[in-house]
Amino acid sequence: MKERPREIDDGRITGFFDKDTEIQGDLRFKGSFRIDGRFKGTIRSESILIIGDQGKVEADIQIGNIIINGEVKGNIHAKERAEINSKGRVFGTITSPKLVVDEGAFLEAECHTSSKAPESIPPAKKTDPEQKV
Fold this sequence. Notes:
Blueprint: E1 13-17, E2 22-28, E3 32-35, E4 38-44, E5 48-51, E6 56-68, E7 71-84, E8 89-95, E9 99-101, E10 106-112
Parallel strand pairs: 1-3, 2-4, 3-5, 4-6, 5-6, 6-7, 7-8, 7-9, 8-10
């Protein structure tokens, strides 16, 4: 009997880090992935990344779609959509053609939106502590 290739359903969770999990490194996946634990490193996928209420992520992220209910520090490049829900907290840079921020969300980020997201994440700006604004 031949095994049929599995189709990836972006709406279904195919990977998960639980709240007591701490991982550092490079994460690549197909399908939807949820993080309720801690992750530090880089994340690359064309699919959906969900940061749960207890999730804490410090990463450079290149993703198709992202939904943030927890905390993210770093650069986010969402090719389709970035969504920060009411409990979400974002520190860094967000680049996406669509950005949704719910009432109550915390956003301390430089945001870039346009009809087409750029192909790469812009480098983080370094500030001189002696420089007056």
